Amino acid sequence: MWCNVESIKEFINAEKPSDYYERLLAELSALNREYHPFNLINEGLGKHGAFPFSTKANICVKGFETTAGSKMLKDYIPPFNATAVERMFGAGHFTFMGETNMDEFGFGTFGLNTETPARNAFDSDFVAGGSSSGAAVATATLKYHVAIAESTGGSIATPAALNGVVGFTPTYGAVSRYGLIDYANSLDKIGVMSRSSADSRLVFDVIRGIDKYDTTCSAAEITCSGRSTLFTVKELMEHTDPAIKSEFGRLLDKLGRDYEIREISVEALSKAIEPYYIIAMAEASTNLAKYNGYKYGFQYPETNLKYNDFFTEARSEFGMEAKRRIILGTFIRSESVKEKYYTKALSVRGMIIREMSKVLRDGYIISPALPIPTPKVSEAERLSPTQNYAMDIFTIPPNLGGFPHITFPYGKKSGMPIGAQLITSQFNDYSLFEFVEKWEEGFSMQYRHNLGSI
Amino acid sequence: MEEKELERLLKTSRLKASESEKKLIRADVSEIISFFDRISLVDTEEKPAYHPTDVQSRLREDEVLPFQDVELMKKGRKMHNGYFVGPRL
Amino acid sequence: MKIGLEVHVALPTKSKLFCSCSNGEPELPNTNICPICMGFPGSKPMLNKGAVSSALGIAKALKCRVSGSISFVRKVYFYPDLPKSYQITQMEGAIGHGGSLEIEGKSIRIRRIQIEEDPAQLIREGALTLIDFNRSGTPLVEIVTEPDINSEEELRSFIANLRSILYYLGVDINREIKADLNISISEVRVEVKNVTGIKSLTEAAKFEIMRQEELLKNKMEIARETRGYNEKSRSTESLREKETDEEYGYIYEPDLTSFGTEGIPFSEAVFISVVSKELAEGTGVNSKTISEMTMLDRHTLSIISRLKERYSVRSIIHGIQRMKKYAPEEESEAAIEKIIRLVEEGKEVTKEMVLDAAAGRKISVNYSAVGSEEIADMVEKFLKENPEMLSEYRKNRKTANLIISRIATENRLNPKDVAKKVGELLDRYASS
């Protein structure tokens, strides 16, 4: 399993100085002060020369404070490992580097919804993307490292694209969610970020597969069925910034040498954002009900208060976006409007899955990852909630439908990396790696930082 | 969104907000619900998809496998004679 | 007067509903716990096959329509005993719908039977609220009836009959039945929550009915509310504001799928009342007495359930008793059935015969070698010594069987031979 992956093999075989990990940790601490990719760095990194991996802060690591980017989980130390983490440790060749920064509970497109947001690895004035912001920045700044991350609506695809790394989101159910601190249970997926497609594939093979602890985890076989056509969807491309459109057009020209490029109309895909947020918020509002200040994480001190007041006081530790989503989710679940929003959203989801499956039988869907150039932090902060939601136009359809997708870097615009997203049929995950591996033969990303270079 | 409705939602979800926060939340939430309302324009007879992929159901055998780290779950928590201490009833 | 019940019953499984913690009652608090039943972040439920099996048995015993596929929902509310702040329970995807339970001359409709998890246990000690999560995640079944119960007697009957079925299905009825009552004598429905045991349930109903009648008599309004039952004062009292459906905000449980019920084994129930009735017919003793005296155990009931089409209940019970007496360790169905067949044929079952059956040997039935004249004498002697038997016979012809059986047993005779002589002699005597 190890031997055919270049960077990991390279790393294992290389002569490393005896204080390699010590120095790496020191460099990392310094970098963390400017870009904040890590919420927690494991000072015990480096056992037996193993290859570093990080986990997004919503993935439970036994014995390490896991907060999901929220004050409500301050000081929470899980008594168990997420299955994906258990499998990484079980593989024997990985060493745990730490937990990466994220939007609180996964609520965000730019990584800004947390106390100390991560900054883009190419320019700290710019957003890192979210919600797996830290994972992307860590991957873009560390030479030898892989990140276990998570996506609900695009939380791997977007930050990976904005930081010039590969971001792989598997088919829903391919990787066990046990130990993943839930945002939306029918939408969450654990995935991988790395500098090369091959590294992501290797880690995917370590963590994926049936797990008795997650009833929604699938035993289905993962295929590698290549396609020769790349579809662009007219309705999605419509609202893309012209600068991005033009760069993306140049990518299509290059890919046109090996693939047939076709523009198609799939109206259903333009209707994905509303049902996505409706389902996500409904489920999230129930998942966040368990945080009420006396069980795990933040312990609200005034135990003399009557329980309802106690809960209300404790839950004021949630950030604004989390509060908004809880309120909206609770609204959607109200008996009087449930049919209109929740049930309808589930039907629309079914329709979108059907439409997308048909298209994906005949080719991949390709698109940019973000419809605008990477914004500065100050610009993104001014966006309204619905303007934020609209940024997910490309990433929501595959996430809503549980389709595997991968983002890969294909260039730079004004010094900032740009990425494209490729989607394929459910359980056809391997073909995505095959595509990107081929692309990597003719393209390699130049990173600003390369911590841990030997 | 009406003030009364926001109050009800805050109460149901055990959240609180200052008067100025409530104004902001009401504006945001109203805008977002209008955004959600667009879903009524979609015409479909499709069955609700509770999961995006076909998940086969799996049942667990009825056997006892005790959790090995019970003490870890009690670390840092208020305990009293082996009981967890909770908020006042 | 209309009474409906929501009865909560703990299922007799080895492990909890969604995790592999033991479903027992350990001595020390917070020892049977894990991240799943504690609702730790990232934990997820795994549905217990045994719980589905047990719930299926109950649904079928209560004559419910069992869905081919079941599913779960989240019921959201905030209380210190609810670790996830939602309870995983069932609604439309519930395991059984539209059943019934017979009580004397009436059918009480069962609206729904659903599987759900129990919250933790709360204990008040002074100013402290103490929580024991051992109970959290216990598998429960909630049995919801229509408001078809119209009197205290019917309430008592319903609970007694329900208890026997549950007892048979392995439910520990020493863990008292807990129920919520819905009581109304007008259109206003009042709920009395968390009442435990037959005695409290009937007293709560009695008090509540009186309270509502009193209010009506004085032309006062009956409030639609939730009340609790106070065991000490034997009265119902107002409780906190009841959450309405609007606020539970049910959604489909997305950590679980829908589960098929085909091919899941389940236990069949036999109604003790049916067993008692049959025994009573055979012996002439009141069926209520039989029921109280019989104390049939689950093993016996299981065998009755399987063989009642082929043998009489009395033979089955007698056969099992013989088996237990001489070969208590024997569990083989084939062996037990051999013995039951002998009993049904009217033969006396000896120790040797039981041991033969248990060892799988051919059973030798030893009859005394006795001539037909001698048999006639024995019959005559018997009838002289037991004149009341003759009187019984004159009233009820079926008594002949009893007479044959007794003579054959006392004298170790082949009942077939005895029957012939008894038939002749009884005809002669009865007509005189």
What's the pLDDT, averaged over the residues of chain A? 95
Rg from Cα of chain B: 23 Å
Number of strands of chain A: 11
Given as residue ranges, the uncertain stretches of chain A (5+ residues, pLDDT < 50) are: none
Integer average pLDDT of chain B: 94
Strand segment count of chain B:
2
Biggest sheet record of chain B? 2 strands, antiparallel
The greatest interface here is: A-B, 71 and 50 residues
Describe the structure.
The complex is a heterotrimer of chains A (454), B (89) and C (432). Chain A has helices at residues 6-13, 20-35, 83-91, 133-141, 157-162, 197-207, 234-237, 242-255, 273-287, 307-314, 320-332, 339-362, 377-381, 385-390, 396-401, 430-441; strands at 38-41, 51-56, 94-100, 146-151, 166-169, 189-194, 229-233, 260-264, 364-368, 405-413, 416-423. Chain A has 454 residues and is an alpha/beta fold. An eleven-stranded mixed β-sheet of chain A has the order 1-3-2-4-6-5-10-11-9-7-8, sandwiched between helices. In chain A, a hairpin with a 2-residue loop joins strand 10 (405-413) and strand 11. The longest helix of chain A has 24 residues, at 339-362. Chain A is globular. With 89 residues, chain B is mainly alpha-helical. Chain B has a domain at 3-40. Chain B is built from three helices and two strands; from the N terminus they run H-H-H-E-E. In chain B, strands 1-2 form a two-stranded antiparallel sheet. The model of chain B has no long low-confidence stretch (mean pLDDT 94). By secondary structure, chain C is an alpha+beta fold. Chain C folds into three domains: 2-260, no CATH class; 272-359, no CATH class; 372-431. Chain C contains 14 helices and 16 strands. Chain C has a nine-stranded mixed β-sheet with strand order 2-6-7-10-1-11-12-13-14. Chain C has a three-stranded antiparallel β-sheet with strand order 5-4-15, with no helix packed on it. In chain C, strands 3-16 form a two-stranded antiparallel sheet. The termini of chain C are far apart. The relative contact order of chain C is 0.09. The chains are: A alpha/beta (454), B mainly alpha (89), C alpha+beta (432). Chains in contact: A-B, A-C, B-C.
